[in-house]
Structure formats: C-alpha cells, structure tokens
Design a protein that fits this description.
The protein is α/β, with parallel strands linked by helices. It has helices spanning 18-30, 46-58, 86-95, 106-109, 128-131, 135-149, 162-175, 204-225, 230-243; strands at 13-15, 35-40, 61-66, 100-102, 154-158, 180-184, 247-255, 269-277, 280-287. The structure holds adenosine monophosphate. Adenosine monophosphate binds next to helix 2 and strand 5.
C-alpha cells in the first residue's frame, strides 16, 4: 500500500520525541504530501489495521501513534494490565504501509508539572461518560496533544468507539483544530464480536458469551425495522444480554449524533451497548437504518 504516490524511503521510522515527530510531519506536508494519522493504544488487531489501510489509500504518508494513555483510565480500571505488544504492533503497522510509528513515553506527552486538561461536554455526557468519569477528558486531552504533535491532514477513528468519535469531532469543531476526522466501520470476528484489544482478556467460555453483544444489536436492528417502540427494543437487548451472563451497563437506542433520546421518527438512530463479562468490559454499537414509522 503505497498511498497516493510511492515514497522514496522504504523502512518505517519509530519516533519517540514529540518535537521530532512534529518536524517530520510538517516537513512532509511542506513538500506537498497529504498525511493521515491513526491514533491507537497498541495491541493492534485487524480493526486498527483497517484504519491504517484506509489512511494509506487516501494519503501519501501515514503516522500511527501507539500510546497507552494513562489519563483515560479510571483508578480501578485496567491500565496496568492493558496488553502491550509493541514489537508485533510495529511489524503490523509497517506491513500496512505506515511511514512513522509515534511511540512516546508518558512523560513526553505529559511533561513534569502537567496541568492542562480538555473537557468536552455534550456528546461526552452520557453512557461512557457516566460509567467512566474522567474517561473522555483523558481522551480529549491526549487526542488534542497528539493532533498538535502529529499535525496531519486527516485522522482516522473506528466506529466501534462511536461516542469517542462524537467527542473528538466536537472538540475539533469547538477548538477549530485544522484536521479532518474520518470514521471507519467496525471490524468484527466471524461471530460478530467487534475486534478489541480487550477481547484478549476473555476466557474461552466468556469469549463464547461475548457474541451476545452483537446479537443484541442485530436483533435491535430487526425490531427497529419492524417498527417496535424504543423502550421495547432496549428491554429486548437487556434481556438477551442478561440471559447470556452479561452484566448490562447500558443498552439504548438514541440519536446517533447527540446520543440524546430520539426526538422524531426520522432522527438518525444508533443502538449502543456496554456490559461486563466477568472482569472484562466490552462496548459495541450498530447504526440503525432510517424508518418512517414511530
Ligand atoms: P484503541 O487502540 O482501542 O484506542 O483504538 C484505536 C482506534 O482503533 C480507535 O479509533 C478505535 O475506534 C479503533 N478501533 C478499535 N477497534 C476497532 C474495530 N474493531 N474496528 C475498527 N476500528 C477499531
């Protein structure tokens, strides 16, 4: 995957210094190259690789960041045990055609005395924002920092983290950040489970149960098209998940742009779920087709 124009350099660079990263991207842009950026926390899977491929198709050069961002994890969350597989990640990204991996240490992103945070309201308020207080502040803060460090033309995010895409787009708009945000489809396992670095936590038994998230979403899609009321669809989702041993955190059908309750039958909708299987927390969503009835 060579991008719009093949690049003379064949081997990918691993950059750890933010200033050096920024200088590289600015120099490439100054020579007329279009730069794509894929921010990740590593432990890369086919979902991440699809973002790199999409970026490589549309851009001349691609930067992929690998940074397990401490500020988006709550104190009792999985920051310490989050999978870290840098060597394999670098190989996957290089094969995907990236020009740079940006893999900073935490103190390069958060310098000594760090005291600046970005707080997004609106789409950050409900769902993940309620269950994980501070999560989107950590996400917005690091994404803003990364956008300034990797001043790309366009950044690629996965629809799997739908609420995150809304938060990032809101921030980009509100701060006037000069970057385009592209949202790419969720890549799934054959049984429908959305690929996630956290799937590695699942025991074989829990892995079997995890397909229930996708099942509940596709069933919601069918009920939606059959014209069933939102409350009934949400209840069906909860019932299905609970029957498969998943502790439901939320299961909702809402406005896909605001994540607020639907106001009209024509409002573009999304079904979103979050639940725990044992100690593992998984989220997923499904864009619902338009329907004419209530
Ligand atoms: P993460 O490493 O979990 O922070 O994810 C980095 C990026 O990859 C985010 O934009 C995610 O939404 C995206 N991503 C994660 N899983 C998938 C998936 N299964 N399909 C598509 N994109 C994904």
């Amino acid at each position: 995957m060579a991008g719009r124009h093949a690049h003379a350099a064949t081997s990918m660079a691993i950059v750890t210094d933010p200033e050096a990263m920024r200088a590289e991207v600015l120099a490439a842009r100054a020579s007329g190259r279009r730069i794509g950026f894929v921010p990740t926390m590593g432990a890369l899977h086919a979902g991440h690789v699809s973002l790199v491929a999409r970026a490589a198709e549309a851009c001349d050069d691609v930067a992929v960041s690998i940074f397990v961002n401490p500020t988006q994890f709550g104190p009792s969350e999985d920051f310490a045990r989050y999978p870290r597989t840098l060597e394999a990640d670098v190989a996957a990204v290089e094969q995907g055609g990236a020009r740079w991996v940006f893999a900073p240490q935490a103190d390069a992103i958060y310098p000594p005395g760090w005291a600046t945070k970005i707080v997004v309201d609106g789409p950050a308020r409900r769902f993940e924002g309620e269950v994980r207080p501070g999560h989107f502040c950590g996400v917005a803060t690091v994404v803003c920092r990364l956008f300034l460090t990797v001043p790309a033309d366009v950044a690629y995010f996965g629809a799997k983290d739908w609420q995150q895409t809304l938060v990032v787009k809101r921030m980009v708009c509100d701060l006037g950040l000069p970057i385009e945000v592209v949202v790419c489809p969720t890549v799934r396992e054959p049984d429908g489970l959305a690929m996630s670095s956290r799937n590695a936590y699942l025991s074989a038994e829990d892995r079997g149960r995890a397909a229930a998230l996708f099942e509940s979403l596709t069933a919601a899609g069918r009920s939606w098209q059959a014209g069933e009321p939102v409350a009934a669809i949400e209840q069906q989702m909860r019932t299905h998940l609970t029957s498969r041993g998943i502790a439901v955190e939320y299961a909702a059908v809402v406005d896909r742009n605001s994540l607020e309750p639907l106001t009209t039958p024509q409002t573009p909708a999304i079904a979103i779920v979050a639940g725990r299987i044992g100690k593992t927390r998984l989220i997923d969503n499904h864009l619902l087709p338009s329907r004419s009835g209530g």
